[in-house]
Amino acid sequence: MKTAGFLGLLLMALSAQGIEVPRSIPLGTSDFTHRSLGTTCYSMDAVVDGLPCNPAFAAKERKAQLQTHIFFGNNVSYAQDVNDILNNQTNQKNIEHLFNQTRSSEMEANVEAGFLTEKFGISFSPYRLSYYSLIRNSALPVITLYAGQEQVIRTQLASYVQDDFYFGLQLRGVQRRFILSEFTLTDALVENSQEDIFRVREQKALYFEPGLLWAPEEQAWSPQVSLTVTQLGAVDKKYTELPASPEAHLGTSVKPPITYGELELGTTFTAQSRYEKWTELIRVGVSYKLGATQYVASATENQYDLAFLLHYKGVRGGLTYDFRKFVNLVGESDEVRTIYSQIGIEI
Amino acid sequence: MAWVYQLFIAVLFLSNLSCQGQKAADRDPLADSNQKIDKGDYDGAIAQLEELRTKDARPLVKSALASAYAGRAGLKVEKLWDFVKALNAPPVTEESVKKSSVFLQSQDLISKNALVLGKSSENELEQLAQSMAAFQEYRLKIESLPYIPQNKRNDLRLGAAVLKDADSKGAHLYRAILNLVFLRSELQDGFKYWGDVSEELKKLDSENRKNPKNKQILCSVKISEFQDWLDQQFDRVTDISEDLRFSFPSKSEEMIAFDKSIKKYQDEVPRLEHTLFSNSKECR
């Protein structure tokens, strides 16, 4: 019970509240697999790029592969704003761009290269950009702004344990520069506003993310049950505005035998400290692969993703349509639709 | 397999955390107030924020309260860059004042009636015309700002009052904007006083030709109200300048020069002892 007790203390120490930014923006992973499958990627084989979401899956890998990919959304125009803000070059154009929005905006972009072989995987992302802004109060616009730039290195070690159990551990090192601030239009327009509200902060984090997989071989539907704990780790500087409470993903998947192609169905329950309704914590996903094409869909109560991927001789290209419904700060139902693109090469 | 069991316990612990969810009570009351403002429930937001500011010293609380008053007055930042342009407008100079239509037209009327007015009254009216011409120049520079009707202007005043002793530069800039909108609205309405004077001067011009001895023609102009109004506007401009100095410290010298020019016009507002208005002995 010592492990559980230690984990409990760590979780309590890490739990904190701050300015409300969807945690997937500052703390998530930006790639095609995470975007299209969401949390169901922790329990499914249908990895389309990079390292597996659950490190225990690396123990099942049979061939060595070197992969690289670029991932970006259709709102990539914010990338310039993120660069300017984080390099202390905020100008009137950035501020105008910020305050001329009428709702929340999000952006993610990522460049990553990785190597995966049996029981071991490593990847490096020299450039992950993320951005989130929310504007409110029409009499004096107030902005919540997150802009981050990260370098991420991930290493996965995995092994077969016994009785169809696999265990894996991901070590994820993140070096991030970010600003997370809440300010009014006039705060942004005054002299030396950069020093006060666009103050760039830095953080180094090391996460230990274990994964467990039960995958009995030679079963007709190839059932799998998995458990992954993410965001469990330590940071060099704690920021109350950027809480990092761990999440646990408990999931299952099956591959019903079909005549043509390969079908996989999965579902995951995520335990996390902040949510509105428990039904948001359950996600279902499906992947269907036929020849060079792969179709992926996943959904939770307020969000769904539809993705299409084409593999051709080690080159992959894909699109994901992301739809998210939420209750905005005015208390009305609101929607965000984003299209993400991915281009990858596999050797 | 003990470690599997321990991981399972950890998951249960996490699940327990997750069951706490995000309670409504955890939400920042400021977020609720902003929501009320966006819904147009300004009375509700003002009540909530007036109470909140007694126990929450965050600058954003005061700014939100000021904005709730501004919202109730009908001020919304839909064309926000017009505000910025108004702030960047070049200063009013003596030269631009003397070229303004208000000054040139009044000069014409005053000189036509110089004989009836007498030298002292002529000087006083000229100075008054110069002050109004200066305001006309300010008015042209800020006319892109929204107009707030007189019955709602008190909320702008209350909003500006909330931010009077604020610590943040942004709050002072917002106060300057509220006062600029107030000034813009006052100037639009306040020119009626000057309109009355001009009308009476025109009448004096025609009456003068008929009856050169008639000196009571300006008696209908409520000059003491006019003077009070002028003083208030000059004070408001000085207030705006002080707030802008706080928000843009490097522009202090420019603002001090601007203050001096305002002071000059304010000091030149004549006491109107000799002019033939309602308070002169000819009208009593």
Structure report:
The complex is a heterodimer of chains A (347) and B (284). With 347 residues, chain A is mainly β. In chain A, 14% of the residues lie in helices and 50% in strands. In chain A, strand 9 (247-254) and strand 10 form a beta hairpin. The longest helix of chain A is centred in the first third of the chain and has 13 residues, at 2-14. Chain B is built from 12 helices and no strands. Chains A and B meet through helix 1, helix 5, strand 5, helix 6 and strand 9 of A and helix 1, helix 2, helix 4, helix 5 and helix 10 of B.
Shape verdict of chain A: globular
Number of strands of chain A: 15
Main beta-sheet strand count, sense and barrel state of chain B: none
Low-confidence stretches of chain B: 11-25
Question: Low-confidence parts of chain A lasting 5 or more residues at pLDDT below 50?
Answer: 1-18
| Total helical elements of chain A | 7
Order of helices and strands of chain B: HHHHHHHHHHHH
Structure class of chain A: mainly beta
Largest interface: A-B, 55 and 53 residues
Largest sheet of chain A: 14 strands, antiparallel, barrel
Average pLDDT of chain A: 83
